[in-house]
Amino acid sequence: MKKIIILILFCFSSLSFAQEKDSFQNRDRLEQRLSQGEIFTDGGFEGKAVWGKMKAVINVPPEIVWKLFIKTNDWKYYKMPTLADSHTVNAEILRQVGSSTKSERFYQVFGSQFIDPFLFQKKGQKWTGYFFQFFDLPWPVANRWMIVKADYDEAKIQESTYRCDWVKEAGNIVMSEGSFKLSRYQGDRYRTLFDYDVVADTGSSVPKFLLKWGIKSTMPGIVQAIRKVAQEEYGRPPPILQTQ
Fold first, then answer.
1. CB 97 within 8 A of CB 113
2. Quick one: which of 122, 123, 129, 218 is 20 to 30 A from 163 by CA?
């Protein structure tokens, strides 16, 4: 049973409190419970893939959360479930890895490099980055990895609004793509509204109904990890009463 749960965690690199199916439909209730720290998730099927979406509030400014997501070399230290390794890479590494489905090929090409993700950042503009993820999972989804192309959008930086769209470009996952958006929660510059969407097909034999359950019950682990790291990065948050 433990292995089955771990398998489910993989699909969306995971992020705890699953909510009822209509959680995105009752606007007033949603806002009240979001403000109290609850994490709302939903999911379903799309062909052979499974989709998920999530909404949560993080009590630090959007700029801090954005910085943490750019720091892809550090993701492996955030303690996100199943994520065993992560690295910032570039288009040349992607080209050399090519269509290989072996993680050994990536490590052979990458070697001992360290690439600073902020070298690619264009403040207040749109820019592109690449990152690698390796997931520590048992059979039948063992040794799953991917290189992702991410399009970052800082065009609305003056409004503290950020967006990232990503797609899997290499690896042994059939398909993974999605996006997230960061913005001020109810206009409060000290709080971030996190909107997350993903569609993925791991190519495994895990039943889709289990993967759907995994979306609703395990994705919040990412938010919990980001909340913890963001708090350490930002320090003690201002009182919630400062919301506007």
1. no
2. 218
Q: What is the pTM of this model?
A: 0.83
**Token pair recorded at residue 202:** 């791991």
Query: For residue 10, is pLDDT > 50?
Result: no
* Separation in Å, CA 77 to CA 74, 84, 157, 185: 5, 9, 27, 27
Q: Specify the number of domains making up the chain.
A: 1
At residue 198, φ and ψ (nearest 5 deg) are -150, 150
**Edge-first strand listing for the sheet containing 83-89:** 40-46, 49-58, 188-201, 175-185, 161-171, 144-156, 126-135, 83-89
Please give the residue range of the domain that contains residue 104: 2-242
Question: pLDDT tens, 112-146?
Answer: 999 999 999 999 999 999 999 998 876 666 788 99
List beta partners, residue 167: 149, 177
As given in the structure block, the two tokens for residue 22 are 């209509």
- Give the closest residue to 85 by CA, choosing from 21, 8, 160, 147: 147
CATH of the domain at 118: 3.30.530.20
What would the two tokens of residue 173 be?
């996952």
